Structures are given as structure tokens and as C-alpha cells.
Amino acid sequence: MRWNTQDIEKALVKYNAKYFDNAIKGEITVVWSRQLYNVQFNNRAIKESGAEATMSTKEDGSHTLKLNTSLYNASPALMKNTIVHEMIHAWQGEYEEEIEGDWHDDVFLEWCDKLNKTGDFKYPLSPTATFKEDKAYNRTNKSSAYYIYKMTEGENGEKFPIGVFVNFLYLEEYNWLIHKGFEIKYYKHLKPGPNANSFIKNKLCDFNEFFLKISDFKKYKLTPDNFVQIIFDELGKNKVFCDDEFNYESGE
User: Fold this and answer.
1) Who wins on pLDDT, 246 or 125?
2) N or C: which end of the chain has fewer CB within 10 A?
3) CB count, 10 Å around CB of 96?
């Protein structure tokens, strides 16, 4: 199909009701651009990023959704991801206070996690999407990861997550893992945490040292109850991590 402004406006109304409980109050104006980065930013970093959609919020609470004309022929699944991604920013513009720099902050990640759990998105929502359908959703991003974990209880009754990283999850994989009982979080960046060992500190630049393959979950029949021991036995202890071995939250 070929998208037009009316299609996008209808989708905005539909998704505001379905995913945001009509909390986005400001009017959203849809604008198409041949070169989005030149229209709004005139900034080399944005230009080279190939940004194809932005959402800006004005002082009066209204918003402008700018879409690159390269999205005219996007698939329904990709356009849905694009629109909802930008609608999260509209919500942030109305309700989040004092956003400094990166709009893909913890609040944005919480929305991604919440909406991905609905199972409605072919392409999981994340900050790293460049909206290039064949290239954006791959397993080559070297700075982000999905943390697949279970909550574990220590000797003193304290609870903490223990889990593994994978570079990327498609929706079917995400839902399959949730159905099996795993918990999943998405992180933009990783860096050594307060209890990182020397292996992590020395090897953090090479994420391949840490990532598990999603195929390993099926190959070894991993479940929340057995995955730690099986991974230790079959793949080594450097594939399993507790939450304090990395600094997930700052992502800088």
C-alpha cells in the first residue's frame, strides 16, 4: 500500500486509544519530508543517522510528526512501529519533565517494554530502530542487548536477576521466551558495573564474548529452571550474569 496523511491520522487516533488510553491530548500534525534531517535539524550527526521519523512538541502541547517520504511504501508492520515509537515521544513531551538530551531514556524504555509485551508488534519497539526495514532489525548492533533472566533468591533471602544477553529478538522469539516463563529487558548500552570482574572489564568491547544465540535456547531446551546450570556446563560461566556486573541503567 501507499501511505497518505489520512492513513497516518487514522492510525494515530487508533493507537492513542489502544496503547495510550487516549492520554496524548495534543493535536498531532503529520508532515512528509523528502529529507527529514535537512527540514528540521541541519545537523551532521542527525543527517548521517538517516533519521526517517521525528516527533516534536510545541509549548502549546501540540505535536508535529515528520515522516520521510521513503516511508510511503513501508509495510503496515513497519509503519505501526514507526508511528507508535514517535507517539511515545509525544507522550513524553506532554508528561515527562526535564528531558536532558536523549529522549530514549528510562521512561521510553519502560514504554517499549510495556507495549512489546502486548504481542502486537512484528518489530519490537526499541530506541535503535533506523526504520530501514531490511537493515534496522538485525543482529549487528554492537551497543545494545536484550537481557533474558529470572529472579533468583540468595542465601540471605535477597532477590536478584541472573540471566544472559542476546543481541536481538524478533517478536516471535520475544513472545516465545515470555511464554516459557523468562523475563526480558532491553538495554541501549552496556558498560562494566560495580561488581564487574576483570574478564568483563577487558572484553566489554567484544560483545560476542557475552551473547548467547537465540538458537541455543532451543538447542539445549533451556527453561527458567535449568538454563543457568546448562549454560555453565555447555557454554561456560562467561555467558551468565547478575545485574550488578554491568551498569545497565545509565547506558552511557
Assistant:
1) 125
2) C
3) 13
